[in-house]
Amino acid sequence: MFADFLKRLVEPGPQTLPDADARLALTALLVRVARADETYDESERQRIDRINVARYGLSPFEAAKLRSEGEQLEAEAPDTVRFTRAIKDAVDYDHRIGVIEALWQVVLADGVRDAEEDALLRLVSNLLGINDRDSALARQRVERGS
């Protein structure tokens, strides 16, 4: 279903993603991090929906639909390294910091910092070009609720 989208996303020198494609790619990344601990529960799904409502001004129905599409894309997406590097090339730095904050929201949604989720978030941060310090600051903002 997403083969053409994935092909465009991982081809050399991707262009800046159109807004709808960027939303889908970033939602799939949220899903990938949520699934990292092999437990993808309702609190994580709800958190992804709330992130998309707040970030993109979607209705709850639209956010759930986007999450569903993101779940499908995540299942079909290549390894995290290629997928995340493609997003890095297509999304500007400020938006990538916002992505890291959203990822931390998902990781912390179930109230547990799982080692697999932490490890994946460190990898994703690095691949998105976000250093450990900026990722830690993003996590602290999320934990403070600011």
TrEMBL record:
InterPro entries (UniProt xref): DjlA_N (IPR007791), TerB-like (IPR029024)
Domain (Co-chaperone DjlA N-terminal): residue spans on this chain: 23-140
Domain of life the protein comes from: Bacteria
Membrane spanning stretches: none
Protein's name in the database: Co-chaperone DjlA N-terminal domain-containing protein
Organism of this sequence: Salipiger bermudensis (strain DSM 26914 / JCM 13377 / KCTC 12554 / HTCC2601)
